[in-house]
Design goal:
Aminopeptidase; globular; 6 strands; single chain; 163 residues; alpha+beta
Length: 163
């Protein structure tokens, strides 16, 4: 009598992301907390000859568990899959869901950049000195990933002087 070899137990994935067919909606679930932990609405767009994944809406209900990073990692892979080369754009704004913590710091730590250099300096200073941004004085800005623009020598010097 032969006994079939035991198959190794595969671990369940930590998160699952569901996309209803034909929609730009992505919903994140966890396997250890059986509930929805976030939503994202994203679709490919083209601006100035560059293709990118536009994130229209990104909301994570359980903060400080890494779900936001996982959603952005997923968005980066989705961008590559859709032919956008991993490029992502979004608008960082304070929402009614968490008015005390604007998402700007989170996106900047992930590697997002912006053409709004004044606000970026403000965000960078807040990160450097471990201060949180004020939702009343932090404007809504468009941000992009990856931040491919290398700073010039003058920008590097000014950054060191003022940060």
């Amino acid at each position: 009598m032969r006994i079939a070899p035991l198959k190794p137990i595969q671990q369940k994935p930590e998160i699952l992301i569901y996309n209803p067919p034909g929609t730009p909606i992505y919903r994140m679930f966890t396997t250890f907390m059986p509930r929805v932990v976030g939503d994202m609405v994203a679709f490919p767009e083209q601006k100035g000859g560059n293709k990118y994944l536009w994130i229209d809406h990104l909301l994570v209900f359980q903060k400080r568990f890494g779900f936001g990073n996982k959603f952005l990692d997923f968005a980066q892979n989705l961008s590559r899959k859709m032919g956008c080369g991993g490029n992502i754009r979004l608008t960082a704004a304070t929402t009614i869901y968490d008015p005390t913590r604007p998402p700007h710091e989170f996106y900047r730590k992930y590697g997002f950049g912006s053409n709004n250099k004044r606000t970026l300096r403000k965000i960078d200073r807040a990160i450097k000195f471990n201060k949180h941004l004020n939702y009343k004085t932090t404007p809504k800005i468009e941000m992009y990933y990856p931040d491919n623009k290398k700073p010039s020598l003058i920008q590097k010097i000014l950054t060191k002087l003022y940060l």
